[in-house]
Specification:
Layout: H1 3-25, E1 27-36, E2 40-47, E3 53-58, E4 63-68, E5 71-72, E6 87-93, E7 101-107, E8 111-118, E9 126-134, E10 163-169, H2 186-202, E11 207-211, H3 221-230, E12 235-242, E13 253-257, H4 265-281, H5 285-288, H6 290-299, H7 303-326, E14 335-337, E15 349-356, H8 360-366, H9 369-389, H10 396-410, H11 414-420, E16 424-427, H12 434-441, H13 445-452, E17 464-467
Helix pairs in contact: 2-9, 7-9, 7-12
Length: about 475
């Protein structure tokens, strides 16, 4: 090799190495999205590669400054969609380091900031997530209703509480859920159905609805049960639209908690989809938060878990009866799987799959307002029937039931009236246990057994039990 050829070879090798390193090290900002929740805001930066970043806060005015290393962009951030009450906007500022990209988030007031990166998870690529939360945040969710909550005018029962139903519209924000063949987002369909269901519940005297999310934003899966608990919910209903790898499956279904993995192929697919949802919407708390797993492991031993599961199973059965009247059912009995949103040990919880959005015919149905109304009505009927037949003892509906029972008893013979005075009757529904019934009425199991001449703890479907005074 001649001297000139040797130099040429070295220069070529240097240039190839330089451009390879430069190409590998050059990140691009490809999008910015702002998702506003009632007490927080999430800003998402979409990037071509995993981000290398630093950040700091400034006051007067309040700003969060994010420096993305070796990053460029051709985006204009002047017309970003922004409905946040906490973030004024996002802009590009001059970086003190050549080759870096400085982004400034202008804030309404000082906020708590949590930044983390997320890997490629379809339909999104690499992301840097900025969660901004009000420092005085409260965890109670807003009540969303198209009409005011109705109350009874009967002064004698005004002190009794409402039955509270927490309604969880699945997915939201970063997480669109399943996407139908024509591009319909699951998160939009289930939110519409959830709002209709909440309105029907709030129109019922003695019942009140709580919406877990009141807009298009993501709520971490563990947080959904926490919000229901903070609202002292009697039931948590999570609304979804099914999907599968093929377009053939169809029909609505209702899911309850299983202590084991789902035993059906679709159930296993849905469990995997839930993990995917966490990666889309958050930092995967369900898998990584060992404190939550430890808490769950301990509380599963508590009797309240058995009670919650029994009630959830009974409500699911009631809802399926009405869903079957307005749509095809995938299964006519409750199915079981290990979904995070069902794992609250102290709140009966069910998950309603309103149909398969991956099926072209059902996608068209789910996009129809008329069908959304029919689905919401069917869910409402099942919930309303269950709680009117099994109202917790301290609720307005239970008091109304007792008043009606007393009126009916007044028309019977004096002997029969005296014998039944001071008692409540309970009809056993599918999935209920004696321990769950005793806990609901806050009466010892032994007292119920004595009042009904029972020798064992076993109750039968349809059996009417006399519930003695506690």
């Amino acid at each position: 090799m001649t001297k000139n050829n040797h130099y040429f070879h070295l220069i070529t090798l240097f240039l190839c190495t330089f451009f390879t390193v430069s190409a590998h090290g050059a990140n691009r900002l490809e999008g910015v999205r702002i998702w506003a929740a009632p007490e927080s805001t999430r800003v998402v930066f979409d990037l071509s590669e995993a981000p290398n970043y630093t950040y700091f806060s400034i006051e007067g005015p309040n700003r969060l400054v994010v420096d993305l290393k070796k990053t460029s962009t051709k985006l204009s951030l002047k017309n970003l969609d922004n409905n946040s009450k906490l973030v004024k906007g996002v802009r590009i500022s001059k970086s003190p380091t050549k080759g870096d990209l400085r982004l400034v988030i202008d804030l309404v007031k000082p906020l708590n900031a949590n930044l983390f990166s997320l890997p490629v998870t379809a339909p999104y690529g690499n992301r840097l997530v900025v969660d901004l939360e009000d420092k005085t945040v409260t965890t109670a969710p807003p009540v969303v209703s198209s009409s005011p909550v109705k109350r009874s005018v009967n002064q004698s029962v005004q002190s009794s509480r409402d039955i509270v139903i927490a309604i969880d519209a699945g997915h939201g924000g970063d997480d669109p859920g399943s996407i139908g063949p024509s591009g319909l987002y699951e998160k939009k369909v289930v939110f519409e159905i959830s709002k209709r269901l909440a309105s029907k519940i709030n129109d019922t005297p003695g019942m009140r609805a709580i919406m877990i999310r009141s807009g298009d934003y993501f709520v971490n899966l563990n947080k959904r049960s926490e919000l229901a608990r903070n609202s002292k919910a009697d039931l948590l209903i999570s609304i979804h639209a099914d999907a599968f790898t093929s377009p053939n499956p169809r029909g609505a279904s209702v899911w309850v908690l299983s202590m084991r993995r789902a035993n059906s192929e679709i159930g296993r697919w849905l469990e995997q989809k839930e993990k995917h949802s966490e990666l889309l919407g958050g930092a995967g708390e369900i898998i990584q938060n060992t404190d939550n797993e430890q808490y769950l492991a301990m509380t599963l031993l508590d009797m309240s878990m058995n009670s919650s599961m029994a009630i959830g199973h009974a409500v699911a059965g009631d809802i399926l009866k009405d869903l079957g009247a307005v749509t095809v059912l995938h299964k006519n009995r409750p199915e079981s799987a290990s979904f995070a949103v069902l794992k609250s040990p102290d709140i009966p919880s069910i998950l309603v799959e309103t149909g398969f959005i991956s099926n072209p015919k059902e996608e068209r149905l789910l996009s129809s307002r008329q069908h959304q109304e029919s689905i919401a009505t069917a869910i409402y009927k099942g919930v309303n029937r269950y709680f009117h037949n099994n109202a917790p003892a301290d609720t307005l509906i239970a008091k109304q039931n007792n008043t009606r029972s007393s009126s009916i008893s007044a028309g019977t013979s004096s002997k029969s009236s005296a014998k039944s005075s001071g008692t409540v009757k309970h009809k056993v529904t599918r999935g209920e246990s004696l321990s769950a019934i005793a806990q609901r009425y806050q009466v010892p199991m032994a007292s119920i057994k004595r009042a009904n001449g029972m020798k064992t703890d076993v109750v039968q479907l349809g059996q009417t039990l006399v519930i003695p005074e506690s």
